[in-house]
Design brief:
By secondary structure, the protein is of the alpha/beta class. The protein contains twelve helices and eleven strands. The radius of gyration is 19 Å and the shape is globular.
Length: about 375
């Protein structure tokens, strides 16, 4: 059906392995880059799927949710190659943002975002490398969660960049997202109470449009949430994260897919083509040196906010951009923003807090590695 063109594989009836469990009322959709038994695990390129065998098992995270009673509706479309942030795929259906049809959908997990936003599914999962889940969640008015490094098992998730791959989750309701996270954590989060929420006010002022900034400041003025402003986290920090991210991502993509890309030369969307051109071809020496820079950056960033604190930043540099026009500055700043948590291995939770001219914009909470529960505690306080 055309209205379900965001799905590339559909279970009819819905697949339910266990008829009872705490998630028996939840409907799950997975992105194409998530393994499902007897289905090919794709990367948004039909030529890749044609040359690979179906998965023998479900991804570990899918198996965990299915054992809790979830009903699986199917697999959803991703961007071409799964590392774009546009939500577009020249090989598959032209999808529309269900909340703001004139706006970008966001990717890579564009199809899953539509399924959740439309209520076809209550839980969506995908690979959050390059903001693959958090960005469409932000653009579609959803909650999105990226676990800190090592908190959720990655087996069965198509790797793009092992340094930055993470299972991402999206839902329409915060309690559902927290329940799913607790089910999927493979180790207990670090114990500790929430001490403080730190607002990276400089990033909001430097990145947001006047309209978005006014909406944000009005939201803050009406909020009873206690926070401290931190004015010294600037775009320079974001640029450092982005540079580190680009070198490591490019090198790891070359190792995993370089030969296949050079042989098959698929016709990507312009945005994906340009991104790959910019990041590929890094030397092993660049890679090793940048790995060292990553360690230094992670230590430095965690100096901006301490253990037990949560850092508040914009998920995107404004509301979702229009489908026909993507300002280059917006695109670069979006990549800089998602690089922060990915480079430093932080937990990140995006909240559907703002609507700017009828278009969604998310705000994110970040926590130190292993302190994932704090982002949910802070979010719950925000909405009390």
């Amino acid at each position: 059906m055309a209205e379900d063109n965001f799905l590339i594989n559909v279970y009819k009836p819905e697949r339910q392995d266990f008829p009872s469990g705490v998630l028996a009322r939840q409907r799950l959709v997975v992105s194409d880059n998530v393994g499902i038994q007897d289905m090919v695990t794709g990367i948004g390129i039909p030529a890749w799927a044609d040359g690979h065998e179906p998965a023998k098992n479900d991804a570990h995270v899918v198996s965990t949710l299915m054992h809790s009673g979830c009903r699986l509706i199917g697999k959803a479309q991703v961007d071409d190659f799964g590392t774009s942030i546009s939500g577009l795929n020249p090989f598959l259906a032209n999808l529309k943002n269900p909340v703001s049809p004139e706006s970008r959908l966001g990717g890579s997990s564009s199809g899953a975002a539509i399924a959740v936003a439309k209520g076809k599914a209550t839980i969506g999962i995908g690979n959050d490398c390059c903001g693959g889940v958090l960005i469409p969640a932000s653009y579609c008015g959803l909650y999105g969660y990226r676990p800190s490094q090592g908190m959720v098992d990655l087996r069965g998730i198509t790797p793009f960049s092992p340094s930055f791959d993470a299972v991402g989750f999206m839902t329409r309701h915060l309690p559902t997202l927290e329940q799913v996270a607790e089910k999927c954590w493979t180790k207990p989060p670090r114990a500790g109470r929430l001490k403080n929420i730190v607002n990276a006010s400089s990033l909001f002022h430097e990145l947001l449009s006047i309209e978005a900034l006014l909406e944000w400041e009005e939201k803050l003025s009406k909020s009873k949430i206690f926070r401290n402003d931190m004015p010294n986290l600037s775009k320079l920090t974001l640029t450092q994260a982005h540079n580190i991210h680009s070198v490591i991502l490019g090198r790891e993509i070359d190792l995993q897919y370089g030969q296949w890309l050079d042989v098959h030369k698929p016709k990507f969307s312009e945005e994906t083509e340009e991104h790959l051109k910019q990041i590929r071809g890094k030397s092993f020496k660049d890679f090793v040196e940048t790995k060292k820079k990553r360690e230094f950056f992670s230590d430095s960033l965690q100096g901006f906010f301490g253990s037990g604190e949560v850092l508040m930043i914009p998920t995107s540099p404004g509301q979702a951009p229009t489908e026909m026009f993507m300002d280059e500055t917006f695109l670069i700043n979006q990549r800089r923003l998602y690089a922060i948590a990915e480079v430093a291995g932080l937990a990140q939770l995006t909240l559907p807090i703002l609507m700017v001219d009828g278009t969604p914009m998310g705000v994110s909470l970040l926590a130190h590695p292993g302190e994932d529960r704090l982002v949910f505690e802070a979010a719950a306080r925000w909405y009390q």
